[in-house]
Amino acid sequence: MALCGIKPGIPVILRELEPSSAFFKHGQSLRVIGKLESFEIETGIVVISDGGFKLKIDMQHLRDFNFRTGSLYQFIGELKFGHDNDAMLEARIGRNVDGLDLNLYKQSLQIRRKIEANLLSRKRS
Description:
alpha/beta; 5-stranded mixed beta barrel; 6 strands; 37% strand
């Protein structure tokens, strides 16, 4: 059985996507959530934001996607960098997540990371 080369999207918060972050690597598979700020149908680029942090999303691989400015969206894809070193997520999956409690989501992500770190440290010992 052949293994698929697609990696799971690591859940990150937009503020974590800074050059010093371990997540800020070309080709890194990520899962992000943010409020839709703008979209350009001609280019297929949307911009999401969360807490003052923004990220461009390349939607060229997604078809028939309905956009609503101000709505909450989740995207899974790979991080790419342009010629001026701007980060952009090349989305392979996108969905509307209106109704999601973003603060609760962030809290659960922190708890998940603590549990994963504990499991990893137990395996090492």
